[in-house]
Amino acid sequence: MKLGEKILFGLVGLLVVITVVSFFSLESIRHKSDKPLYPVLTHYEFTAEGERGYGIYQQNGCYACHHAVGSGTSMGVGLDGLGSKHDLNYFVNFLKNPEKTYGARTLDHGAPPKDAAYVSELPEADLHAMAVFLSELKSDQGSSSSFEPPQGQSSFIDAMVEMWTPAGWKAQFTDIRDWMKNNSKEGQHDAKH
Fold this sequence. Notes:
Blueprint: H1 3-32, E1 42-44, H2 48-59, E2 67-68, E3 71-72, H3 88-96, H4 98-102, H5 124-135, E4 137-139, H6 155-164, H7 169-172, H8 176-192
Antiparallel strand pairs: 1-4, 2-3
Helix pairs in contact: 2-5, 3-5
């Protein structure tokens, strides 16, 4: 072996060792602590029908494309937190007629021969149970699947808004954080009077 090859293999080997040591260090920290490494900002409390919908989701292998309730893949839209974005009627309509409800073509949902075309052909009761399941996947304020931004001020968000928004933006649009702050003060004021 030439000197360059020895150096290259040595560096790759060192990188592998560092990766393995880092992985086991983080795993040991995670197992020793009751507190999660990252905050969990999505949650669910299934009703009986939501639980049945979750069973239908699992039986039909929806997790092969979607991630929900801590398992599945990210090939399709992540489902955790969607219940905070849409109501039950939206999900019922989407499952029956996805492209009409979504307002655009979808990759796998819709008319055959799409892979998930079978979903719209499920019995009405099963579609409703799945819609309930989806509507019960909630997210906390500030999570990536929530309409509401994080509470309080964020120097990072402030810097990004300042850096990337055009000069006339503030005159034309209202920052949702300012709007929420003003509306929550009005709500508190109305509650006092």
